[in-house]
Amino acid sequence: GFAGLTIDGRINALSTEQQYGHVVTGFEALTRVGRAVADEGVASQWYVQSASPNPEAAKSLILDTRNATDAAATALTQSLGALNGHLTPATATQVRDVANRLQGLQITTRAVVNLHSDASGAFNDLATNARDAAAAVARDVNDSSLSTSLLGIVDLRHAQLANATEASVVMRWLLGGPGDLAAWDAAVHDQQNNLNAFLTTGTTAEVH
């Protein structure tokens, strides 16, 4: 989609900034973690609420999203060394916390989901934490232009997380759960607000 292509294009452009290449790699890994965990949360909700035995589509989706989360986790782990010495202590702590919580999600939270128990809160919280850590990394960059560009990517990722929240609300309703119009409306507005925030930093090619 638009967000994914735009993020990839901007990341590729920013990676040429040799002075900050190590930071961009870690930053990208954090944004990937946020998106992947949010998507896995939606897939897990479908898996948990589907009748047992689960439909093949639900099994396939949860495996695909788990693979995406695992790939993002590997990328984050590989980038941690390059980030050392380039972040404030507070930001470094945020990043390490995301990496540690991600390991817990891969083991403990997934075990809960496998037992058909709701763990949506754990996915939502970690996705938000990863997004916030990415924003902190962006703010630690001394180059104001690069920092602003990275924060624009955070805005787009935030819009994607809001999209996942919207999907979660709709899926819960489709599977016979209670509808939550307020949560759906908030998610839609969150998507638009963060897309608008990105557009203030987008280049002509990105916003047209």
Give the gist of this structure.
This protein is an all-alpha fold and 208 residues long. Helix content is 82%, strand content 0%.
* Beta content: under 5%
- Distance from N terminus to C terminus (CA atoms, Å) equals 14 Å
> In this structure, how is the largest beta sheet organized?
none
Number of helices: 8
Helix content: over 70%
Catalogue the unreliable spans.
Answer: 1-5, 204-208
β-strand number:
0
Order of helices and strands: HHHHHHHH
Gyration radius, to the nearest Å?
17 Å
Task: Give the structural class.
Answer: mainly alpha
Shape: globular
Average of pLDDT? 80
List the helices and strands and how they pair.
Blueprint lengths: L1 H13 L6 H29 L6 H28 L5 H26 L5 H21 L3 H31 L6 H19 L4 H4 L1
Helix pairs in contact: 1-6, 2-3, 2-4, 2-5, 2-6, 3-4, 4-5, 5-6, 6-7
Could you characterize the architecture of this molecule?
This protein is mostly helical. Helices cover 82% and strands 0% of the residues.
Considering the chains and any ligands shown, give keywords for the structure.
208 residues; mainly alpha; 82% helix; globular; disordered N terminus; disordered C terminus
